[in-house]
Amino acid sequence: MHNSHKDPTQEHDFIYSIEDGQSLTDNQCFLCGVALIETNRTDEHVFPQWLLRRFNLQNQKINLLNGTSLPYSKLKIPCCNSCNNEHLSRIEIEVGRAFQDGPGAVSALDRTTLFLWMGKVYYGILYRELFLPADRKDPSAGSIVSADILNTFRMHHTLMQAARGTVRWHQGQFPASIFVFRTQEPADPRDRFDYVDILHFPFLAMRIGSTAVVASLQDWGALANSVKVPGIEAAKKLSLHPQQFREVSALAAYMTTLFNRTPKHIVVSREDHVEIFTLPIAGLSGKFIFDEFSSEAYMHILAQILGMEVSEIYDGKSYRTLLQNTDGTPYTMPIGLDGQPEA
Ligand SMILES: [Zn+2]
Prior knowledge:
This is HNH endonuclease. By secondary structure, the chain is α+β, with helices and mostly antiparallel strands. It has one domain. The strands form 4 sheets. A 5-stranded mixed β-sheet has the order 7-8-9-6-10, with helices on both faces. A 3-stranded mixed β-sheet has the order 5-12-11, with helices on one face. It is globular, with a radius of gyration of 21 Å.
């Protein structure tokens, strides 16, 4: 409806147009694309204020892709009044309440609500980086994230329109794999929050108080339903130590990179929305939907997410996971104990 390219003479001008929908300027709403003027312009906090307050994060910083950092409180994106105060605030209230109550409540959330909330955080960071210079001393270096990169997330942006009710997915289908884990809470509130994502893949993980959420945003349930990853299965039975959270995030992130299908969609225009029907993920190919797990490749992602060198965690043959004992059972790792499980 707020599509900036809409032609008012067109009969179905309320139908969201996938081709034109993604706004890439900071005088448009990041979500619906409407032109922002004084009367409808608001700032949407990518990381909501309830989260910043609850964990004392106002002055903490997030690292950006170019190696610089930005305070969480300045991570805001342009948003129109109705997207911000109607659609997104409804989601925010539900999600904020659930995280307050813990993993049971977060698991019980409507999964579309959780998907949209996580999807907004993920997309919001990239969107903010579209307007930040890659190098403050060199204006010709462009922005941290280019419009081309953001364009590769066009389908993600389309799915986000579900927040406004203009896009829905076919009954029984769901765009993402989302895992909810129980986590231990460190003494300092600032240490009760953690955020992980990876470049070029719609994946993110957040640890918020006693709950962690880990999501592969566009695999249409493949990671959750088509494969059993031992480390992820172990994590489901644990109350995760912060380091275990990082490890299971790395594992799910790596699995996301192994997903080898590009889902195909049929978009059907309904009266007041479009419906996305996703064709069966496996399709006609007999090949498994995840590429083969390579310890070596995984070690690079794990090291990156742990903030360590590969050589510190991997001797070329094996590494000691923090998620499982050597016999495969879940490894209980209380806070205060930062070492590896006994061999
Ligand atoms: Zn809007």
